[in-house]
Amino acid sequence: MTRRLDAAPLQAAGVYSLLGALAAVLAPHALRIPVWVSIAVAAALAWRAWLAWRGVALPRKWLLLPLALIGTAAVVVSYGPHLGRDASVALLAVMLALKVLELKTLRDAMVAVCLGFFLIVTNFLYSQSIATALYMLAAMAWFTAILIALEDRVRSLTIQQRFGSAATLMLQGAPLMLVLFLLFPRVQGPIFGLPQATSAGVSGLSDSMSPGSLSQLGLSDEVAFRVQFHAPPPAPQGLYWRGPVLWDFDGRTWTAASTASIGVSDVRHETAGAAVSYTVTLEPHYARWVFALEVPVAAPAGTVLTGDYQLLSLRPIRNRLRYEAASHLAYRYGGEERPELLQRALRLPAGYNPRSIQLAREIRERSPADADVVANALELFRSQPFFYTLVPPELGRDSVDEFLFTTRRGFCEHYASAFVFLMRAAGVPARVVTGYQGGEINPLGNYMIVRQSEAHAWAEVWLNGQGWVRVDPTGAVSPARIQVGIAAAVPAADPLPLSVRGSFELLNRLHFAWDAVANSWNQWVLGYTPERQTRLLTNAGFGAATWQTLATLLMGVAGAVMAVLALLILRRLRAMPSDPVARTWLAFCRKLARRGTRRRAGEGPRDFARRAVSEQPELESKIADIADLYIALRYAGSGDKGRERRLRELVGAL
User: Fold this and answer.
1) pLDDT digit string (tens) for 260-303?
2) CB 510 within 8 A of CB 498
3) What is the β-pairing status of strands 269-272 and 330-333?
4) pTM to 2 decimal places
5) Residues marked as catalytic
6) For 56-85, what is the mean pLDDT?
7) How far apart (Å, rounded) are the C-alpha atoms in residues 272 and 260?
8) Contacts of 323 (CB under 8 A, 6+ apart)
9) Alpha-carbon separation of residue 494 from 94, 403, 447, 535 (angstroms)
């Protein structure tokens, strides 16, 4: 058997199909691996296709071995000695490129198909989206059809039949796949998820803020997180999702303080009214902050609450995170703040923004109390011609001066930065808070979508007897931003994404529909965590989901599913005749039945052929040849294997 498989040559059509399937699963990696790897793989695939087209001999082994060594060394040089996910995928791509250059026999093709199946899995190491799953499902069907074609030595099946058989095999395996998904022991993190080594290219908030940083996020319609409220959601002006708190200013950039200097806090705040409960599904952003409405009742599992009321995860969020939270929207905290933190909230760099410092002193002189300083500064923003925009002018060294006295056009970070600067210059402790403000309800799933475009910055001031109080100067300039959303606040000329602006009703509905599907995928497939698996088994009456319990259930249920599938297949095989000639004739009858000509009970092959010709005259010669061959093989006692193969070819081509 092995010798026959080794000796059976590949046809050019089979080579083209296999190369196409390999190119399809390698294509998503093209932007993830070094350019030289992509070029080398593309060149190898094109070279092998050219060799098949021209019928030229394949490269010798003595050439492929040095190429393999050079490719391995180049990958090591590109990634360093420690091979991780990216380096392993690049090395696999290089080895596969060399493998196709020795693709000669059926055995070589089988090996290449197995590598192709493995490559499908590697794509899920980067993305587990619905689009990726559908794309890889199509690739799996392609490789399965190639396997069927490799076993079809007489080429009796059409392309449609091969893909149909592949789809049937995949559907037969679906019940077992579902059992494995539900019962295979879960590990922390989503399916196929591996920690990323870098956060490059990931949009979102950071632990610093400078002019223009948040306005860039305003141009993105990517989802930051989704929220499922357990009761009617709060009004838009209550939707402040607290994130990084920024204390230090160097004249241009605000930065967060270290956790060590701020400390970790117990929840110490006075509240009024009932708490709002909700579930957040947070997209990975490769930092540690976790978002909750101001202010959280308690830190969710796996997080800590800092002294400035940031929620921080115990580890960077590299995978999608789902957590339960509850918040009080009416609160008071920080009334007994540490003196060193209040002093830190007054620091300003020397030599920057002299006009703003003078303005703050003037506000202070006409304000008997700190609360009056706040009110007068807000009145400045309301009464003067300030404008809210996603495309503010660039600012120079004295950014606050230029914004307050020259440009007067800015995004939320400009207003928050200028306001906190004025407060500190006037002797009022203040700090910048960043996060998200608002959100959009998806009516198809009754959950809230918070996008990167809703990134926001506001201020907190410390007032004696009240503690830290939220002040949003953006709301003084553009109330619509807080009450309605960013789409209602920015000018029509600003480059806001269409999905965020919502000006096209049909596009908006399609976007909601797709996001509802994506959210269900995230919740039920990617979000199937060990905790949810344990809850499922507990509800099913199996108690604790230990490894022993899971292994026993997995083997028992998988065995039962396989037994049922085997019985169904055996039943179908038993109903089929054992004679290969009779099986081929039945396949011929089924094909004609799909065309509208069904064989009648007791109708002989010659009578059936005559009636089929009268109903399908365009197939007269094919039907006659098949009927004559069948009658000769079935009733004339002919055991000619060549004629049996010819019969299968005729039926397969029908």
Assistant:
1) 788 787 667 788 788 999 999 999 888 999 999 998 988 888 89
2) no
3) antiparallel
4) 0.73
5) 412, 456, 472
6) 84
7) 31
8) 279, 280, 282, 290, 300, 301, 302, 303
9) 45, 19, 28, 48
